Structures are given as structure tokens and as C-alpha cells.
Amino acid sequence: MILAAGRGTRLAPLTDHTPKPLIDVGGRTLLDRVARRLVDAGADRLIVNVHDQPERIAGHLEALDLGVEIALSREAEEPLETGGGVLHAAHLFRRAGPFLLHNADIITEIDLRALLAAQRESGALATLAVHERETSRFLLFDAGGLMGREDVAGNVVERAREPRGEVRRLAFAGIHAIDPRFLDLVKERGVFSILDPYLRLAAAGERIFPLDVTGSLWLEIGTHERLAAARRAMDSA
Predict the structure, then answer these.
(1) What separation, in Å, do the N-terminal and C-terminal C-alpha atoms of the chain show?
(2) Which of 55, 113, 124, 175 is the one with CA 20 to 30 A from 46?
(3) How far apart are CA 128 and CA 115, in angstroms?
(4) Nearest alpha-carbon partner for 44 in 31, 32, 35
(5) 231: how many CB neighbours lie within 10 A of its CB?
(6) pLDDT by residue for the chain (237 residues), tens digit each?
(7) Which H or E run contains 40?
(8) DSSP secondary-structure letter at 84?
């Protein structure tokens, strides 16, 4: 599933007329880059959630001719955030095995097949791609997996449970491999972050593990400055 329903307000006025997933970086749209990477990782079906200018995104996906089935999950009234978006699209998943969840605004060379393999091997509820980088928000992991999160700017630390040994502060890369049983465990409703059920379920004993991808190319297109940096990086690649 590609999370592509965000409005991209920090990239206005560019996103006033162009949906954020259709922004061009190095001659290809963000959505094109993510979709092709997922197909290369073995996906034979893509679920894409949409809100802003959905018909433009639908037409773009059709024109890409990716050779896989594509299902749109329309969030008509408002974007439902990561957790709400996945829950809204729950009926579209095949549930035959773990699925990848990928933000649309990321350019990366993270090994998606390795992420899926780690998820299958561990049998955890989810495996999250994480890395060491400067950020104001961290996920907290210990020997048992995800146990909390920290908002440095807000000076807030939330712990789902008591730590077991050393705690690592890692930045989330916006890519997950998730066991489909997660879809039946989500009790939250409306607009919510997927971290809310993750932390609630971690407190209940579910395992959510990290996969450290530090060193892999990772570019997040959230601001004009980051977009310019990504375009420079792709033009020189």
C-alpha cells in the first residue's frame, strides 16, 4: 500500500495544482518511483489511498502501465492519516501474507525484499525500517521491540511498557512490513497515526521490531528545501 492521500501543504503553492505524489524529481514522479520499487520487490497488487485530486492520481497510475492490479482507496472527506488510511483500505487487502506500507513522499534505496524477509522470519506483528538520523521525533526500541516514542521538540516521551535492557532511539523511515492480522487488531477509528495502535498493541505484548537501514539512500520530500535537495541528488545520480 502506498500512502498518497496527504495534501502536501508545506509544499504550497506547488501542491495547489499538483498532488504531492505527482511532483517530479529527476524526471519521474514520486508515485512512479515508489510504485516501481514495490513492484520490483514482488508486489503484484498496489493499494493507493487518495484524497487530493484523486482522478489525476488514478490517471497517472493507469498511464504508468506497471503490469499489476491497482486499487484506489478514496478518502473523500479528509485525509485519514497513516492508521486511518490503512483501516479504511482494510477490505482491499488479500491477507495472504505480510504487506508493505510505504509513504509516497520518500525516495530511497532501502532493500524492501530484506524488510519483508525480516518480517517473515521474526513472525512479529510488524517490522519497521528505521535509521540513525537527526530528527525531532524518535521511536524507542529495546530487546522486545517497539516500546515507546519521543517528541524532542515537545519534550514528550511516551512509553507503552517498561524497557527491557538497552533502549535505542531511532528515526522511522516511513516504510513498514506488516502481518495482515494487524488489520483485525485496530480498534482506533477516524483520523489517527498508525503509531497509536502500534504502541497500544506493543503494551499488550505484540512484537514490533526494527530493521536498521542506516546508510541506505533516504530522501523525504516534505518541504521546499528537501525537494530541492532531492532534485539535486537525483540529477547527479
Answers:
(1) 27
(2) 124
(3) 8
(4) 35
(5) 17
(6) 999 999 889 999 999 999 999 999 999 999 999 999 999 999 999 999 999 899 999 999 999 989 999 999 999 999 999 999 999 999 999 998 999 999 999 999 999 999 999 999 999 999 999 999 999 999 999 999 999 999 998 899 999 999 999 999 999 999 999 999 999 999 999 999 999 999 999 999 999 999 999 999 999 999 999 999 999 999 886
(7) helix 30-40
(8) H
Q: CA-CA distance, 69 to 108, in Å (whole number)? A: 23
**Which grid coordinates are listed for 94?**
488479500
Residue type, 38: L
Q: Which CATH number fits domain 2-235: 3.40.50.1100, 3.30.479.30, 3.30.70.2740, 3.90.550.10?
A: 3.90.550.10
CA pair distance 232, 237, nearest whole angstrom: 9
